[in-house]
Amino acid sequence: MTTNTRTGNQTDTVFRTEGLNVYYGNFLAVRDIWLDVPRNNVIAFIGPSGCGKSTLLRCYNRLNDLIESFRAEGKVFYQGEDLYAPHIDPVEVRRRIGMVFQRPNPFPKSIYDNIAFGPRLNGFKGDMDELVERSLRQAALWDEVKDKLRQSGLSLSGGQQQRLCIARAIAVQPEVILMDEPCSALDPISTLRVEDLLHELKEQYTILIVTHNMQQASRVSDKTAFFNVQTSEKGNRTGYLVEYDRTEVIFQDPKQEATKEYVSGKFG
Predict the structure, then answer these.
(1) Containing domain of residue 147, as a range?
(2) Given phi > 0 = left and psi -120 to 50 = alpha, else beta, which region is 74?
(3) Is residue 93 domain-resident?
(4) 183: domain CATH number?
(5) Is the pLDDT of residue 88 over 50?
(6) Structurally, how many domains does the chain consist of?
(7) Neighbouring residues of 101: CB distance < 8 A, sequence distance ≥ 6
(8) According to the model, what pLDDT value does residue 60 have?
(9) pTM of the predicted model, to two decimals?
(10) Under a CB-based contact definition with an 8 Å cutoff, are residues 227 and 239 in contact?
């Protein structure tokens, strides 16, 4: 992949989504998405279950490609380049666009090797000890694990494991981090630590986060996209984008009645 960024401009568009439709076989899962993601922002995706938030998120690092029936129509541009063009390597896309999943999923390896695994796979030639420390520091985990780097990553608490997974994503030096409900399995204290971490990470990364937690979306994000779901007579559920704006607008002065009802808790 090539890039055509203007690194000095904080308002650069990282992703541009134009008329995206996502199908699984003949089933339309997400329809007609138009969405721009600016650099060094945290973008929250909110909406009821089944509205396509996670499906859309996985379009941005081509993780849906692993589903045999998946098909995308429309355009997804990453830094001006068509992510679904024939010459684009999905593996390289996933290196540049990291992913943190709903439940912590450390490898059954040491804390050190969890961080070092991706860089080794990518042929990293630098100082691995320095990279591991830097990644753990960025994930606000270094002070808690620096004396037990050879212990299993599975020995950590749930909140620590999730921050380890964030450090693991950071270690391959991505440009974007996608997070699919990263706090849903965590206790409130661990959740707040991850949220604090997001504020720090957006200085260096663009972050897209799917969350069902309205308070979390309002606390951590710069912009929020609200999705809803339309159910057909046959019971098929298709997600669509209702409204996308600055987070304070979505939560305090939304333009669409459905958005107002959702953020006020009338449905969801």
Answers:
(1) 13-263
(2) left
(3) yes
(4) 3.40.50.300
(5) yes
(6) 1
(7) 165, 180, 182
(8) 97
(9) 0.90
(10) yes
CA–CA distance, 191 with 220 (Å, rounded to integer): 11
| The pLDDT of residue 1 | 60
Which of 239, 266, 217 shows the shortest CA–CA distance to 32?
239
| Residue from 38, 184, 16 nearest 100 by CA | 184
Residue 140: left (phi > 0), alpha (psi -120 to 50), or beta?
left
Distance of CA 175 to the CA centre of its chain: 12
Euclidean distance between CA atoms 175 and 158, whole angstroms: 26
Query: What does the pLDDT average to over 240-261?
Result: 97
Q: What are the structure tokens assigned to 129, written together?
A: 């000890």
β-sheet bridge partners, residue 125: none
Contact between residue 76 and residue 62 where contact means Cβ atoms under 8 Å apart: no
User: What pLDDT score was predicted for residue 268?
Assistant: 63
| Beta-strand pair 42-46/206-210 | parallel
Q: How far apart are the first and last CA of the chain?
A: 39
Does residue 8 sit within a domain?
no
